[in-house]
Amino acid sequence: MAIKSKSRKQLLKQPDEFLSFSGKLLATVIQYKVHAVSGLGVILAVVLLASGIHYMGNRAENQAFSLLQKGLADYGRTLPGDGAKKAYESAAGSFQAVLKDYSGRDGGKLARIIYAGMAYDAGDFDAAIAHYKEALDAADAYPGLRPFLYSGLGRAYDAKKEYALAAKQFESVTQGADPVLKEDAYLNLGFIYDRMGNPEKSAETFKKFIADYPESAFLGMVKEKLANS
Question: Which of 48, 55, 73, 196 is spaced 20 to 30 Å from 220 by Cα?
Fold first, then answer.
């Protein structure tokens, strides 16, 4: 069940509860700089807060975040020496527990998105796709998350060489009203259309990218790609 947003007046009466949630969320994502969600963790945290998710002093949410933080700690401890696959395996117990028992809680929803990113980094693309799809099914209450989830799905399908499905996800981002991740989506689409054997559509997409994002750090790369096509 979605947690209803409270009015500013109500929040001011409960500063400790709101700050507790904000602190947990930001600390969780910023501390570990979650390699999951493709380095977008800090942006994701801001989106979640802006989407009206408010901590309610709920015991179940505390337990969900506790498991999430344990999983992230295991992941962060294992990653430097053993790599993404071993780190993903070391964190699996905590993440599976929070998804089993608290999937409907905000901590569980955040855990699913992070775990999907971990699965992607570990090369478990089928698991990443499954988790991103479930997160999308539950995203109605927090529409600001959709660009992140579509992008994650697109990358996972692209990694599996399922280019038509990958393109569909990135198209969902470019066709949406939210500007978040559109630059990234157009860039990915240009290359995916090329891999699909559609150079005309690829060139069209890259030209739109150049027109819409003239200050992009990837502008030179895109122009070079067009020149060599």
Answer: 196
Neighbours of 197 (CB within 10 A): 9
Q: 204 — phi, psi (to 5°)?
A: -60, -40
What is the C-alpha to C-alpha distance for residues 58 and 81, in angstroms, rounded to an integer? 36
Q: Which two tokens stand for residue 137?
A: 């099914």
**DSSP labels for 127-140?**
HHHHHHHHHHHTGG
User: 52: burial class by Cβ within 10 Å (0-12, 13-18, 19+)?
Assistant: middle
Reading the block at residue 187, the tokens are: 């860039």
Residue 78's nearest CA partner among 124, 32, 112, 27 is 32
Six-digit token string for 210: 């150049």
State pLDDT tens for residues 37-80: 333 343 444 444 444 444 445 788 888 888 888 888 898 889 88
Q: In the predicted model, what is the mean pLDDT of residues 146-161?
A: 92
Terminal Cα-to-Cα distance of the chain (whole angstroms): 50
CA pair distance 200, 196, nearest whole angstrom = 11
- Reference 67, options 92, 89, 45; nearest CA is 92
Angstrom distance (rounded) from CA 129 to CA 109? 15
